[in-house]
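Letters spell out the chain; the tokens describe the backbone. To illustrate:

===
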Amino acid sequence: MKNKSRLLAAALVCALVLTGCGPQRTEPGPEPEGTAAEPVAYVPLDDRPDNVERVEYLAESLGYALAMPERDWYRTALDGQPLNENGTQCGNMGRLYEWVLEQEAAGCDRYILSLDQMLSGGLVNSRCATAEMITMPDGREAPAAQALEELLAALAEDPDNVVWLLDSVMRLAPTVGYAGGTLEEYNWIRDFGAGARETLAEDALTLENVFESYWRTVGWDWEKFYSDVVKKLGEAGVDISGENYYRPFGVLAANLDARERKLRLSDQAQRILLQPGHENFRLMIGIDDSSLEDCIQKNEIAYLRGGLRTDREGNPMDWLLAGVDDLAFKAVARMYLDETGWRGGTAAVRYYGGTEDSPACDYDFQPLTTVVAEHLELFGLTESGNPLAAGLQVLVLTQPAEEESKNAYYEALMGDLEECRRENRPVILIDAGNGRYGTAFHEKLTKEAELGWLLSYAGFLDMAIVTGTALSHGVARYAYLQSGEESETAERAFARTLADSILKDFCYKNVVRNDLLAYIRNDLGGDPNNFWTPEIDREAVQARLERGMEGAVKDVVKNLQRSNFFTLEPGEEKGWGGIALENYRFPWDRAFEIGIDIRLGEFTEPHEKILGIYYR
């Protein structure tokens, strides 16, 4: 019976195609003239796609236009790669300081500024920076603390300015392949950072006591730990003879010096914002890769929580949440919600997989349910246990509690997603499976769901970041639709950000990237984490990427081109047009992530389907 239905459907589609009613695809062309948008001066965390083009898409989808400094000024270069024009691997803090003041002089009144970039030259450099001085374009040197104070004072002079500051709690270990950092160093420093520390509270929770707690691990035999570290380094081929025996200690000390510097600057930012005149400033702190243990971050987090502000009504003015690479998404979304008078709403969160009460990956320190709940609070959403009464539907696939039930978990999600589509309930979809479902879940979605109808989707990075990414995009889109605004530029930007997220997760992360990892290691003898150490045939890697993506994206693109956009009123739907993918690239010359340019055709009349197959 099933085969007969398929044959009937295929015959019907063929007949429709022959009569001119087949799937319509508008040809992607040049971008149309954009509508006037509200400018936002933005200094990114670094030059990865999640901090640049995807933030641009989100901002444009809400009627903003990001102004950004030259890429070289916020670029990160891994070891062996070409340096920036300032002769370093990190961003140009002096140029960025000057650039922000130029935006202020030009009349800008919205800012989103990464403090890790402004004060340390980017996220990666903030994990190892110990220098106190920033060199300005005129050659003058100023302490980072002084530069921060002067910059915030200048922005506070205009009471119309709205300033979002983004900061982070340093992760447990520095970056492999940057400033000479090795995998062996990363592993043992992370082990040290994950060790339990005494909990500081009340009067004992001071900045100096937090610094002292870095060294005071609970229940550790330091001498044994250190001798084991030296032994492992020697087995890995590291020279630990003579005075080199003490080199690991110096590496750890430098790491903790950078950690202390960073927390001092975070503390100073909080103290400045407590002063009068900073009521329109917002601070959002993200917790970088962490651990479930009472790790080195524990007292830092508690200390920074104590400095978060609330307004007279008790509403948060600052936030401290899991996730760093999604900070700009959250700031853009929350800025829009504040400016449009968003009054919050309700969300029904449904989990599939049975592990939502545990951290979703090794780098999370909270259960997934807690991470989701804190992000719902950020966006003014109240969790509802009744999906029928909730405004938003949040569907979350977790890691499988039982391997043999994996199919049942995502089949249950698919059933609820189909019901939401039928009843026109807006959906935010989160894949927190951490790769445990392979490609099966994505293939199911591609074959049976209407991907372009979703409000948002995320699944590529660590799960705390995935949560913040999906919710910021989804809530912002929902609020935009409720506002009644309409703009061709905004709609096309929304389509790009949704397509970008789906394509990279479905097609690159779990398909093409695995092939590239093997090809780089086995065929080229290189390191997928850095194409320059050793230097490999980058043109061959680029060609492999393009061939792989050409085949991997076909079904997903076809699905998107036959999707309709979600609308509050079903009768107002419109269809996706054609999609062209161009300029595949490796932003950091590593295989971890890619960039894509997405060109779109004109949107169409609503697509229709018969027997589950879209024919128009």
Remarks:
- The chain has 19 helices and 17 strands.
